[in-house]
Design brief:
There is one protein chain. By secondary structure, the chain is of the alpha+beta class. The chain contains five helices and three strands; from the N terminus they run αβββαααα. It has a three-stranded antiparallel β-sheet, with helices on one face. It starts with 6 loop residues before the first helix and ends with a helix.
Length: about 130
């Protein structure tokens, strides 16, 4: 099994962007299971007038790929509207990292699923109130 990581994966793993709890977040979403080995929580702060993600952070439990994909997702989503961020795909996140080993692609799926879950939760909990 080849688990060769790109320099960008290693950089995001060693120096994750937007790591930690966002105390003033509008919404938090968690996907995955620590029992299975991977879990991601995302925190979003959204401008209610423009629907732009003004701030985003994450917490992660898992391997290097899990941490790196959660980190790159925060960079990709920040500054986008909810609708734009919702269109980010797992392939785009993996490509933004210079690729992932095939056995680690599920990490990019988990990061994107968590982002979509946070956006859906925001739209349901905040917008429809």
């Amino acid at each position: 099994m080849n688990t060769q990581y790109s320099e960008k994966v290693l950089d995001h793993f060693m120096h994750p962007r937007n790591l930690g709890i966002l105390e003033y977040a509008d919404v938090k979403a968690t996907e995955g299971s620590p029992a299975c080995g991977d879990q991601v929580s995302l925190y979003l702060k959204v401008n209610p007038k423009t629907m732009i993600i003004e701030d985003i952070s994450f917490q992660s439990y898992g391997c290097a790929s899990n941490i790196a994909t959660a980190s790159i997702i925060t960079e990709m989503a920040k500054g986008k509207t909810l609708d734009e961020a919702e269109k980010i795909t797992w392939k785009e996140s993996a490509n933004a990292l210079g690729g992932l080993p095939a056995v680690k692609m599920h990490c990019s799926v988990l990061a994107v699923d968590t982002l979509k879950s946070a956006i859906k939760k925001y739209k349901i909990d905040i917008i429809t109130r």
